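S1.2 Input.
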Amino acid sequence: ILSLKMLFSGEAGVKDLAGPIGVVQIVEEYYAYGLIYLLLFTALLSVNLGIINLLPVPALDGGQILILAIEKLRRKPISNRVKEYIFGISYFLIISLAIFIAYNDIQRFIM
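S1.3 Output.
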């Protein structure tokens, strides 16, 4: 949660994000310190992924919960067309972010 706050407040930049390529590099570093540190990092990574998944982004579980809450408050379902539009945009944004993060990971790996 602190990392998300730092990201949105500008204390941390998007260059500080790591995707699968960056995580492999980080795992390699923790592995050098020993198994306990590697397991602690793995646990931290798992908790972080769970928290990210609960963000109210429609393509994630938190977004599904948000949509269900909105439908409950409205007492009627959101039309499928609107949901498809919302999900399409959110999928596009998530894929774009993943490509950007992978690009940053590759840049860090090369340099």
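S1.4 Remarks. DSSP finds five helices and no strands in the chain.
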